[in-house]
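Appendix B: complex inputs.
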Amino acid sequence: MKKVTLPDLLKKKGAAPIVMTTCYDASFARLAENAGIETLLVGDSLGMVIKGEESTLGVALDEVAYHIRAVRRGAPSPFLIADMPFGSYQASVEKGVESAVTLMKAGAEAVKVEGGSEVAPLVERLTSFGIPVVGHVGLTPQYVNLFGGYQKRGKSQAERELIAEGARKLERAGAVMIVLESIPPELAAAITAEVAVPTIGIGAGPATDGQVLVIYDLLGMNGSFNPSFLKKYLDMDRLVTAALEEYRDEVRTGRFPPRRNKS
Ligand code: KIV
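Resulting structure:
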C-alpha cells in the first residue's frame, strides 16, 4: 500500500468514502494494511475490547502510546490516528498539548478528542503546532456517566442543535475530520453537507464521508455484542472458539503433535 497522508484523505470529501477501522496491535495492523484499509484508529475502545473494562475511562496515555507503536510497526502505510484518553486533555489546554505530543512521538499522525465547543480551544492550539486533530461528537463514550449509558444521541431538537454546533466549532477550530457517533442519519447528513472537512460515521447512517468500526466488532469477535448499526463480516467468536476446541481435543487425544514414523 502506498503511504496514505492527510491530504490524500481530505481530497476524498464528497468524492470517495474514507475507510477506517480501529486497530490495537501489529498483527491486525498488518492484515488491515494488506486489505487496503487506509486509516487506522487506536481508539480508547481498547479499554473495553483489549483490557475488558466496563468503559473507556480507565485507559492511560501510555497505553495508547504503546498500542500506537505496535500498530505502526505492523502497518507503516495507513494514516494513523491516536485517541486522547480520558484525563489526558480535560484539565487544561497545556495538558492536552503535552499528551498529544506524547502520542505523536509514539508514531500517531493525528489525535482524536471527544466533545464539541468545550474542546475547540485545544483543537485550535494543537492545530497551530501542526498536530492534526480529529473531532468526535454525538455519542462520546468518555461522557458515559453524564449520558447514563451508550444510547443514541440527538433524540431531542436541543441535543441535535448542540451536536451540530459542536461540529461547526470543531471545524472552525481546525479539526481535520469529525467522527459522528450514534446520531440520526439525517443529522449526520446535514452536518456532512455543512462542514468542509470529512465526517466519519459510526451508527450515523450512510451519508457521512467515511465509516469507522471497531475491528473486533466488524470481525464478530463478541457474539453477544449486536448493536443495530453493526455488520459482522466474520463470525470470529464461533470460528476462533471452534479452532481452539479442536486444538484442545487434538492435544488431549494425542493427535497433535503428530507422531513421527520411526522407520
Ligand atoms: O475508541 C474508539 O474506538 C472510537 C471509535 C468507535 C470512533 O472512538
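Residues 6-235 form a domain with the TIM Barrel fold (CATH 3.20.20.60).
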